[in-house]
Amino acid sequence: MTEWPVQLTHGEAVLRPMRRRDQRDWDEVRSYNRDWLHPWEATMPPGGEPGPATFGALVKLLDRQARQGQGLPWALCWNPAGGDPGRARLVGQVTVTGISRGSARFAQIGYWIDRRLAGRGLVPLGVALATDFCFRDLRLHRMEVAIRPENGNSLRVVQKLGFRYEGLRPRYLHINGDWRDHEVFALNAEEVPEGMLARWQASRTPR
To answer: Which residues form the N-acetyltransferase domain (predicted)?
Structure first.
């Protein structure tokens, strides 16, 4: 079982559980970014069960899944002043799903961010923090990211972090109303013995 709640902080990025009182910020960010995010949003295939009907129900579902060790549904928050992490503003999500134990010990990671803050390095930083937690604290062996080939912004995140390209999975996930091809990137724990955060920081240090 995953110990939950879990909060991770470094620099301007804070990963923390979603809260019911986040609804106003969530609604504002999702509304502002509706057109920007819509092409990449997961959708329910025909015959699937509908998702939570309210924000409160969504938070309850995510919290239950986290406490059962099925995932790590973090809100990505921006803390520009480096002050109290509790005052950081919700600007996206970094979510670990499909946690597998036993002989596999892997999981998948996904992310999105408010386009007004894209390009600041918050998503790579958040993904690095989440990956380090999964490798170090959960003792997972493999982290995987699936991205639509057309999603250049998401592809740049895994390229910056050095995820290894593994190939194309045709019609892999139901996105924006249909089954879509995805390119798959992955890392094994032994490929980053220094940790993802250290790798990310080193890549940003002028040589």
So the answer is: 14-164
